[in-house]
Amino acid sequence: MDILSVRGASVIMNCSAYCETPPKIEWKKDGTLLNLVSDDRRQLLPDGSLLINSVVHSKHNKPDEGYYQCVATVESLGTIVSRTAKLTVAGLPRFTSQPELSSVYKGNSAILNCEVNVDLAPFVRWEQDRQPLLLDERVFKLPSGALLVGNTTDTDGGFYRCVIESGGTPKYSEEAELKILPDPEEPQSLVFVRQPSSLTKVTGQNVVFPCVAGGFPTPYVRWTKNGEELITEDSERFALRAGGSLLIPDVTEEDVGTYTCVAENENETIEAQAELAVQVPPEFLKRPANIYAHESMDIVFECEVTGKPTPTVKWVKNGDVVIPSDYFKIVKEHNLQVLGLVKSDEGFYQCIAENDVGNAQAGAQLIILDLDVAIPTLPPTSLTSATNDHLAPATTGPLPTAPRDVVATLVSTRFIRLTWRTPVSDPQGDNLTYSIFYTKEGINRERVENTSRPGETQVMIQNLMPETVYVFRVVAQNKHGHGESSAPLKVATQPEVQLPGPAPNIRAYAGSPTSVTVTWETPLSGNGEIQNYKLYYMEKGQDSEQDVDVAGLSYTITGLKKYTEYSFRVVAYNKHGPGVSTQDVVVRTLSDVPSAAPQNLTLEVRNSKSIMLHWQPPPAGTHSGQITGYKIRFRKVSRKSDVSESVGGTQLFQLIEGLERGTEYNFRIAAMTVNGTGPATDWVSAETFESDLDESRVPEVPSSLHVRPLVTSIVVSWTPPENQNIVVRGYAIGYGIGSPHAQTIKVDYKQRYYTIENLDPSSHYVITLKAFNNVGEGIPLYESAVTRPHSVPDPSPMMPPVGVQASILSHDTIRITWADNSLPKNQKITDARYYTVRWKTNIPANTKYKTANATTLSYLVTGLKPNTLYEFSVMVTKGRRSSTWSMTAHGTTFELVPTSPPKDVTVVSKEGKPRTIIVNWQPPSEANGKITGYIIYYSTDVNAEIHDWVIEPVVGNRLTHQIQELTLDTPYYFKIQARNSKGMGPMSEAVQFRTPKASGSAGKGSRPVDVGPDYKPPLSGSNSPHGSPTSPLDSNMLLVIIVSVGVITIVIVVIVAVFCTRRTTSHQKKKRAACKSVNGSHKYKGNSKDVKPPDLWIHHERLELKPIDKSPDPNPIMTDTPIPRNSQDITPVDNSMDSNIHQRRNSYRGHESEDSMSTLAGRRGMRPKMMMPFDSQPPQQSVRNTPSSDTMPASSSQPCADHQDPDSSSGAYLGSAQEEDAAQGLPTAHVRPSHPLKSFAVPAVPAAGSAYDPALPSTPLLTQQAPSHPVHSVKTASIGTLGRTRPPMPVVVPSAPDVQETTRMLEDSESSYEPDELTKEMAHLEGLMKDLNAITTA
């Protein structure tokens, strides 16, 4: 190793060599052998080391400094040399800088300079107050000799000097005082007293980066390496010395980097940087190995080294440098090849590697064996004698004789083919191999070429020199060894003919994206005229070369690939053949627009105003140039002509911002080169969000979770949360045996399934799924599954169908398609397998699966709900074996126009603004899609054509609307219609509302009105006072009351008949004339202003008024029929039973004057109502209506009514009501057979007129009068025509609130009946009673 010494000292350089025969040791200095016999200062020690006494060194005489090398020689083996070692002699003691007076604040670090020559730095020591100074971690000497004192204290004050002790008299520096100052009163700025400087070190050396900072408060020093904090406490690699200097002992290549010293206190921070470079002496990656060989063979010594800087390599044979020649060649950078071995090549070969920081050597021995000695399989591992005693000789036996008739059958300029016949000793020669020895004539170094396989009797000798005589001989070899050699054969290679030289000035340039023109000049050399040229060209990176014959000096090659590198070369031909090829010239074809569109364009909607595009470049080979950017085109789907453009860079994504919210856009993208824009992708569409996604809260629970257990895995699939307005960043899947918290896996937000692997068979796993975003994780969804047991798999298990896809065809139809991997590639079904499709929707959550079977690879699922998300899966069954369910596919049916009108339409007056009303409603129950708007229709004429109504549009998210500037004290009718993206839904039933009078009285809203074509208003009506609710009676009491009512009715009829027989025909005619004069015009026109409004309050959905008489007379005499009344027998029924209003139709139609409407709107009295539900009344009892004991006198205003045949009536509801001096006729109500009978909207049942035509309003007073009554679920009986056969059914008359009133007969003194009319009326009542008896007895 290298040695540092001082003048006058003694130095010993060690050298040891080991061998069976003791080697001779010699020394070289600077490459020259030293004559140690006559040298009195330098002598060889018995162990081979070199001793130099009293090293001589002066400014002009340095005889001992230099590079020394040890040489060991064994006579019978060879010579080896050691690596070189450098002896450096330190110069005369001299100070470059000396300590100076300095002061430092207590706690800071101080530095005292003592710069000396690098060679003398190890000999420097320090004294304080002329006493030796002990060094430690706080008091530290830098490699330059300077002294660092860290974290100074008062004891560090004093006088310092440094001393150089390099042999002889010590040399002292000047003394300098170090003063320790007390802490200052004010902070002092941080400054570096000594900064680190960049260093280059050799591996194994110590590195010190000095870093001394001063200031107050006392700074703290820390270090970073390549920007990362260095941990120096308790570290084996790094240590801090003297308050901040960094020590790196035994440096390695891993320590290379940028080191930063950071000094900081409470007020500020300062930094200083330094680079550390590390050099590495040469090291061997592969050392040469010992080799046994025969003469004439070729051998290679391998040597592979590394180091920094890169080492140089030289080879030494027996101590002498090997000079490369025809037979000694350096191959593969550092390997030594020796061709045609001779005996003198035997010896030691050493590979010596050197760089700036060291050298290394590795050697190997070459041993030449006799031909009759077999080469051992393992090379020798140590130096050994060249004798053959250590090797077993080949087995004894007859050797082959010489091969016969050796001839050269082909002689060229650089190769010769030899053939021969087998030896006489072995005519077959199947087991013989041959060695062909050859050499240049006059050269004693033979080379050898062996045949490739036994029995072969020819060989091709290559790499010969032209016009040279070679001597060949052939030796046969069998298992016993080499035989006799053939006689030498001399063969001269052919002289090399004068072929054309390379064509000069070959040039190639691209003329277009697909063509290149190549030009050249006539070759300068050549024997004979150039006949033609061959132009070779090849695509860069390919192996196959193409050629074309050319007669001239240029050629244009077409059909090349765009923007692709090609290499070209030219070979000239003359009569002798091809000449020397030119060097390759490389040129790239010109660029063009890309020939293909970018790939995999995907759109990601970020928010309501931006969409992120991602894509991949066009396929390789289609770029046609350097891609310089991408052109993005986008437009609204609704506006085909509005196309915008945005040019992105070479990145593969682009955020398009500034879009409109809730709008669908089309995007396409094309790649660009400097030549232009290539083809674009197909349009891809995406719709921005209606509103920005919310990330102020965690996502909601995923809408579904499905698990499919296998033996060691579980396939988990899910659907995202229903609320798409909250950001979902991903999903967390937890699972474990019995608990889902054992392990957690997080997947991307786009993922919809995941396979949990490496599970235990036959184990119960609990699985949880949570959606998460930056706020946190949402509510988990739990599922459990038991993995399948380990079992012998079925030889042909049924695989579940794959590729399940749901194609939406309409609002209620989805086509499911799939593939079956167990079928042939053509997917043709030839066996009896069938497929089961199952589907369900998650709304409501407990919906059950529906299934259907199919024998093809698709199925049409029909009868689905519009705008509903369904999930589908498929399984295959063959015989008794079935597959598991496939992965689920999802599809949402298309929207459909709403199939129901808006619900719960109400109209109220705005407080303080009588001309403004507020319309409220609820969305349709069957919206079939997102409601995008509502249309409010209103008119003062309920029968006007719909296009004459006033229209008020409302946006879809509103459920209330104000309508202003209406006319005071006027009835209005309102209808509402909903719409979605598919169109308009049905209208709601008309709702009537009368605006308040000018005095500010509140208007009155009503339930929906049903106006039919057959309805005409009566002349007068009656009102009843409010009643109070009473408890319902039991069924027996009800029967008694009903029978009593029937009896009373018969008595009243008899009394009326007595009066009627006394009346004359003239009275009857006068009455008819009076009826016509009063009501004739209003019957048909409906615009009379002087007619009292009707008081008929019948539920508009269930009852249909029928004329009592079918007479064509437009205004016959109305029968004055008293109405029985018993307030205790009527039960109120809550009008909330009213549902499905839009499905009902009635038979009321006509107009009502403002006067009649005003009269109706003013009525608020409670009226009793009658229902006929099933279920409550026991059968086998008859119900009769008995006349009441109270009678009503006839009014002076006689109502008119048509007569009705008994068989045309559907039954009658009987009741009574009271109004000032007015009486009601008996109404007949037809109950539709197809609809349930519901309660009247208003309690009273007034009499029916004959044929008038007003709109009938209804006021929902029942809910105000008796809100606490429960809703009655009513099944109704359909009452058919009297006299017609019908099945019996029970009838129940529920109780109603008490109506405290007096019933009186209103009798007209002038009224009378004709005998035939009385007979018909009696028949009518008898038919009614029979009908009631038949119903109750059933």
UniProtKB/TrEMBL annotation:
UniProt KW keywords: Cell adhesion, Cell membrane, Disulfide bond, Glycoprotein, Immunoglobulin domain, Membrane, Repeat, Transmembrane, Transmembrane helix
Main location as per UniProt: membrane
One Gene Ontology cellular component annotation held by this UniProt entry: plasma membrane
Record bears the keyword Transmembrane helix: yes
Region named Disordered: 994-1030, 1066-1093, 1107-1234
Gene Ontology BP annotations: cell-cell adhesion
Occurrences of domain Ig-like (ranges): 1-88, 93-179, 187-277, 282-367
Keyword Cell membrane: yes
Family, per entry: Belongs to the immunoglobulin superfamily. DCC family.
Name this polypeptide is given: Neogenin
